[in-house]
Each structure stands twice: as C-alpha cells, then as structure tokens.
Amino acid sequence: MDRDALRLAAACADDARRIARGAFRSVVAVERKADATPVTAVDREIERRLRARIADARPEDGILGEEHGAEGTSRRRVWVVDPIDGTKAFITGSPLFGTLIALVDDGVPALGIVEMPALRERFVGVDGAATMNGRPCRVRPCPRLADASFYSPGPETLAVAGLDHALGDAVALRRYGGDCYAYCQLALGWVDLVVESGMAPYDFLALVPVVTGAGGTITDWHGAPLSLQSDGNVIAAGSPEVHAEALALIARHTGA
Amino acid sequence: MDRDALRLAAACADDARRIARGAFRSVVAVERKADATPVTAVDREIERRLRARIADARPEDGILGEEHGAEGTSRRRVWVVDPIDGTKAFITGSPLFGTLIALVDDGVPALGIVEMPALRERFVGVDGAATMNGRPCRVRPCPRLADASFYSPGPETLAVAGLDHALGDAVALRRYGGDCYAYCQLALGWVDLVVESGMAPYDFLALVPVVTGAGGTITDWHGAPLSLQSDGNVIAAGSPEVHAEALALIARHTGA
Description:
Two copies of one chain form a homodimer. Chain A is an alpha+beta fold. Helices cover 33% and strands 28% of the residues of chain A. The first copy, chain A, has eight helices and 15 strands. In chain A, the strands form three sheets. In chain A, strands 4-3-5-6-7-8-9-10 form an eight-stranded mixed sheet, sandwiched between helices. The longest helix of chain A has 21 residues, at 3-23. In chain A, 52% of the residues are buried. The model of chain A has no long low-confidence stretch (mean pLDDT 95). The interface between A and B is medium-sized, with 27 and 27 residues.
C-alpha cells in the first residue's frame, strides 16, 4: 500500500476519534432512518469530515459512506466509510462503537481500519498484516467448532431461522453483540467465530484486511471473498477448521 | 458510611484493577464450574486477595464471594464480592467485565463499587450518591417505557418465556449483553431499563447503591428492595415511570 493512502486513512481515523470522543456521553439527538435504525448528527459529522478529507487528497478515488451515499464507486480505488458502527452502543453510553475505514483497490479490500475512539484502540490491516495500536495481532488456533468462542449480534439477526441457535449449540461459548469489535477480538486471538447477516459493504469491508492480516478468514456464507457486491452474509473465523465446520453447518441450514 | 470502610473498599478495587489488568488478554486457563459457567484462576486470585484484605482489616465482618463461598453472613456487616462479573467477556477479550464489591449493613446494601479494570472506570455508590471516577452520576428522565433504551443479557435469559420479547417490543431500543456495565450505563443516564433473572447476591448487591445513588430504582420483580435473600430476578430503571410500567408488564407475564 502506498504511504500516502496509509497516512490519509490514519488522518481520517484521528478525525473520527476526536469527533466521537468529544460527543460520546454528551447530549446528542437521535433520529430514525427510513429503516428505523438510529442515526445522530455525530455519525453525519464524522462522515462529512472524512469525505471532505478524502475528496481533497484523492479526487480521483470513489467514496461510499453509510450516511451520505456513493460517489464514483466504479473507479479503481474506492474508500468505504462507516462513521459509527454500533450507533446503538454509542447512544447508550457503551464504548464498543467504532469508525470503519476501508480502501478497496480493483475490487479487493486492501486497507482496513477499525478505530475505537472510546477505547483508544486502533486496528489496522494492510499488506497482509494486522496491528492494534502498532502491535501485531494474531488469531489463535482452534481445531474444532466445539471449542470455539462465538459472537453474533443477537438471536433473531441471522438471515436463516434457527441458524443462530444451531451455531450457539455447536460451540463452547456464545455471546451476543459487539458490532465491529467482535472481529477485533477475533483478530486479537480471543474469539474464534463471528457470524452476521444483513451487513452493508461499509459494515464489513474494513474488517477484511484486519481479520486476514491477523491470519484469520472472512468470507460470505458460500466461502467467497467479500467485495462491494457481496450479499451481506458474513462469517469470520480465526482458524480454517472452524471456518470450514461453520460453513458446512450454515450450508445445511440454508439448504445450499 | 465510615471512612475506614470506604478506604477498604477502594483498596479492594485497586487490587482488583491491578490483578485483572495484568491478566486481561494474557493466556488464562478456563475451567467450567458445576453449573457449566466459566471460571479462571484470575477470578479466584482476585477474590482471595479481597477476602484476605477484608478479613485482615475487619475480622468482625462477614464475607460472601462468588468463588470461595460464605463466612459469617449472619453478622451485622457482610462484604459481598464478585471478583469478575462478565467472565465470558473477560475470556473473550472484551473490556466489559467488572469487579463488584458491596457492603451490606443490617441487611441493606450501603456501599457498592463497580470497578471496570480494562476501562479504568470506577463507579461508587454510597450515602445516597453515585460517582464515576469521582464525578457525579445521574440517571436521565424517561417518561414512558415506549421511550426507553433497554438492556438484558440475552433472549432466553429471563425466567419467564416471552418476557424478554415483550419488553423488547415495548421499548424504543433494545440491546443484549453488558453484564454489570449495563447498570453503570443506566447510572450515567444513557440506559433506562435493565432486566435480568437468575442473579446471585454477589451479582446485584453492589449495583444497588450505584443505581439508587444516581437517582434510579433497582428492585426485585415485585418491586421489593434487594437483599441477600432476594430471589435473583432484578429490574433497574432510571425513572419511576419506566420502573412502574415495566413492573406491570412483568406482572402480566408472570401471572402475579
């Protein structure tokens, strides 16, 4: 990855940290979007700031953001931004919200940042490696799904009825919640499996270089690489064995 | 509260922070207790340290802890300790675990500390006030259950089938998880309702002075004050209106 792109991404993460920390646990009006999910002026302010910075530095690149839409997404390089992943955490005073910044190069997520403002933790995935605050991240071995620690957002959130329970019954430990941070826990080697549905590209593209840079696997539910065109069903695993076993379990449930 | 007891509780919280921070995200063997819940050597080490400190400073007081049992719990003053509330968070690398320290005086939880080692946040409830790192905590107004932000541990965790869904349908926003920290978010004025089942005295007694000191209400599902003898069904609300509405909804579901 060229150093200019890395510097730009880090400057975006610095902006997001400053704005989000300033607004965390201060009074912020919550609106509902058309899909009934919450959004705040802070989400919009962070995305506006990042889009302006990116457009200024790299006018030739495209940008896709959660709150302000898509521009030039057919270009070779596309920045993909989620200003606050975990808005429900943010507006309930939980520190487990993050800003997601990805750079997609020729269809491949080549750079990913998960910036956790309240925790002062930054996860960067690039050039086949992942770091947290500059220190290397590494997934842990996990030979069997039965030994895995598993996160999903909640019991009714997976696209196929009964799948969340089936996965929960197959693992050693299950937890709900976490949003982007569950993937960071996986990259750090403390979680073995995360499964989600209904994600948008700005929810998952930044996670790809972090998880794969830490030695893990993150794909759609067919085992295919994630891209701007993915269907939003995502599975991340620390070990190839857990990825394969969970994919097979998902296939049995989806009838694929 | 006498200053000696306050100093002792703070020294216990300091110990817990030091031990937990030293062990967080380092390799810790996980065992399963008879009830299949996980426990680590860190849980045991923190509790041993706190019990030794309390027994040394106040040999006349009783102690109840999650991992090492009860001693002298019929005495006038009883210390109640949960060394790691949120062991599943702790062993999966999530910072949302805490140490709970309560002092029960004549049956009443008179002092409560929620120490969050990884977050470097300490919540103290005593003498009718609550603080976070020394700054006052205050619940927020919430006139109706329909406006409330609601936390519960997970969909199947409440003692009565369907209750979690009914509460989730009645509120504006619902989130799973959080363990003790959900009550801290409530004391800070960012969450309006927390409902749980199957709690032990060491899970909830420290929360009582924090929630009530911040101006909230925390009771059992009949609206009765919490004590060493409570049945483990707990409801905490920031506003009296949400407490009353949620209690009524619970009563309809429990047939009480």
